[in-house]
Amino acid sequence: MNVNKKLSSFEMFSMTLILIGMKLSDTTPSLFAQKSQNALWYIPFLAFLIVLPSFFVIMYLLEKVQAKHLVNLFELLLGKLLGKGLAFFIFLLSFLMISLDSRNYVEQIKTLYFERSSSLIIFVLFCVVCVFGAIRGIEVIGYTSKVLIPFLTASLVLVIFLVYEHMIWERIYPIFGSGLQFVLKESLFKGSIFADFILLTMAYSSFKKPSDFKIGGLIALFIAVLEITFLFLIYATVFDYNSIEKVSFPFHEITQYVQLGDFFTNIETFFMVFWLLATFLRFILLLYLQTWLFGAIFNIDEFELLVLPLGFLSMVIGLIPDNSVVTELVYRNQLLDLLTPVLIVLPFLLLAIYTLRRKQVT
């Protein structure tokens, strides 16, 4: 395969869109609907506005101090010991979040397509695919994302087009759902659904130019948020007021509504193929970035050798919760609430330190 040694802005765009945009098809809308009900559709947009300044600050600091990646940025601003300690804290939170996310996707695959199969067997196969893909490296992951993103976009547009006639706009009322206080709280504490973007800074030095990382990443972020918001709006207008919070996998429920005449039946299988490809690619990228983060913390140059043990550990952690309901409504919800303040406050603390120590770190 002919793969460039340095990534381009379009590859950054593709990886970011897959990494963040997949939130529209997981259990996130069901999580939001538990508190805000039919107001879930604009919570991602408000949450994104809250964390967006933090992303700008991180990218600004990476460029100003000429850091290679996130861990290097922490070391340059805080010193090696404190910087690595902070990076390890970020690693623990994000690794736990990814492990719980992978469990939710495994349960989703089992419930929708392999109901009689064991969760353990599906998780093992899921882990094997992700490990095999992650070992290939960031260049191959970026190239694959670039090839796959047009097909994913086309399938998503087709879903929206086919389901549009089933939307009942009156269902967005009351506009604040279960109450304004719940909407504001969910928006404030769920900004960490976009925290995966911070992990992409581990690949900052893998791009041809720093501008490729910024331009590709920011454009993809805005498009991903618009996609998520519009798909959540579709969920809110297709499902009735009482059932919206009870729909575990709204994206796949939506595909049950679409049809292409009487000849094409079970068209949801068509969308399943692209959804599975995007799911595997997302977790391949996350596993690789997590391993890179761990390797940078402990100065391990050949960190790709750690992909297998970290992938296995992620599976073990993901299997600990009793069921997917506990995983989603308790553990993942609490982790999102914990991670969001860190995501909001930490970049500005680093900016303050950079301002005070500007001559020393540049």
TrEMBL record:
Membrane topology: Multi-pass membrane protein
Domain of life: Bacteria
Presence of the UniProt keyword Transmembrane in the record: yes
One Pfam family in the UniProt entry: Spore_permease
Keywords for the protein's UniProt record, in alphabetical order: Germination, Membrane, Transmembrane, Transmembrane helix, Transport
Transmembrane segments: 41-62, 74-98, 118-135, 147-168, 219-238, 270-293, 305-326, 338-356
Chief localisation class: membrane
Cellular component GO terms, alphabetical: membrane
Annotated localization: Membrane
GO BP terms in the entry: spore germination
Sequence similarity: Belongs to the amino acid-polyamine-organocation (APC) superfamily. Spore germination protein (SGP) (TC 2.A.3.9) family.
Protein name: Spore germination protein (Amino acid permease)
Source species of the chain: Amphibacillus marinus
